[in-house]
Amino acid sequence: MNPQYAEFLAAYRVIARLAEVGALLSWDQETCMPPNAVSDRAEQGSTIATEIHAKITDPAFAGLVNGLLQDASLSDEERVNVREAKRDIDKAINVPVSLVERLSQAATFAHEAWKKARAAGDFSLFKDHLQLLIDLKKEEAVCMGHGNRPYACFLDDHEPGCTEAELDRLFTPLRERLPPLIREITRVKRRLRKGFYSHDFSEAAQKGLCEYISDEMGVPRDRSRLDTAVHPFSTSFGQNDVRRTVRYKTNNPFESLYSAMHENGHALYDLNIAPALAQTPAGSAISLGIHESQSRFWENIVGRSRAFFEAYLPDMRRFFKKQLNGLGPADLYALANEVKVSYIRTEADEVTYNMHVILRYDIERALFDGSLALKDAPAEWNRLFEQYLSLKVDRISNGILQDVHWSGASFGYFPTYALGTMAAAQLAAACDKACGGLDTVIREKRLAAIREWLTGNVHRFGRLKTAAQVLRDATGDSLNPEAFFSYIEKKYAGLYGL
């Protein structure tokens, strides 16, 4: 191996390991950190963030990378690693370490404030913390040369190369076609076995089912664990340590089941990136949109299919024998795919989900282009929610306080959920052809075939391919909403007799 390239990999490995430590601190804060530890955690987190920033912007490291950019002897994989490291350097070099430190600490305090505000239903407990994060992110955007359009900077962080113009192109058909479809479906009166939700589904039994389905999906227990959190998430500390979280409602086992399948999709992506890429710049997901396509694929395409209940209802009865008495696959399929306008994004059905995402896109873009003041954001949220989904928000915990993302300064993240939902439908159509019919594979409980197809076409590449390349190579087409509309229109026409 080229000695300079070997030196580069060794230096980057330290940066990657520090990032894993930072992720571990965040996971601990979300799951089990004592409330009074927040000040210490803020300092710990900022220490890690500033150390990573120092190593990425170290002139010696930058010089090494710039030299390798001119090295014609590098392989294609080596060139991608150097290119991705250069991208990281270019993003970090103009941001002063003092701003990195302030952002990290502010996010730690904001997260704890968000939890208190959400529990109390009081936006004022979070407002000043959120305003500080917005101001600091605007300052960061100025440093990055995006002072006039700060939101563009944040989109690129989560979905490299994505622009507001591209999102508007993709979201316009959703804005135009989803509301009338939602109205058409919700006018249909269906008889559902709603008595299902009157039963008690113990947390222990729900966790048992989640663990069983995780096993079926191929999430290895010796490289992952499942915990609880206020807001479900997954995170990775390397290819042998992926953490997933869910939350439980004792009257609705679907929430934990689909949270688990969603987070398992993320986990499988992180676990199945080619081992040779571990702790290199190319050793992580190429974009959050592609990452979300994996979680939405498993949660919706697989988990909400009729074939899934035909295959796994006998197993579900082992955990909920009394509660499932008298219910068949068709009953659970209908319950799991009920279309109804509801407040919570993470509980939304496939048809209404993207409108939740578009609302958040509209709000955060307005906060950063100056057309919306933060003090007016809760009311604007409520106005848009009623406009898009024809429902009045009843309380603020079901409105602007419901999501964790802004408390961590993750602005520009929400659009990737819609991008992932559209990509999942395209990938599903391709996988259906390649595997001889997804319904057949699911019905026969051969989930390994799906996992292996996704690993071969998506996971293993890490950042060796762009998101556009991954999707085009796997599906033969660029990202567009047509596969998504084809999927939901066919599925829900059957469910609702449209």
TrEMBL record:
Residues in the active site? E263 (proton donor/acceptor)
| EC number(s) on file | 3.4.17.19
Q: What does this protein do?
A: Broad specificity carboxypetidase that releases amino acids sequentially from the C-terminus, including neutral, aromatic, polar and basic residues.
Q: Name one GO biological process term.
A: proteolysis
- Catalysed reaction equations from the record: Release of a C-terminal amino acid with broad specificity, except for -Pro
Look up the record and name the cofactor or cofactors this protein needs.
Zn(2+)
Gene3D superfamilies from the UniProt entry:
1.10.1370.30
Keyword set, alphabetical order: Carboxypeptidase, Hydrolase, Metal-binding, Metalloprotease, Protease, Zinc
Record field: transmembrane: none
Q: What is this protein called?
A: Metal-dependent carboxypeptidase
Protein family: Belongs to the peptidase M32 family.
Q: Which PROSITE patterns match?
A: PEPTIDASE_M32 (PS52034)
Entry's cofactor comment:
Binds 1 zinc ion per subunit.
Please give the Gene Ontology molecular function terms for this protein: metal ion binding; metallocarboxypeptidase activity
Listed binding positions for Zn(2+) are H262, H266, E292
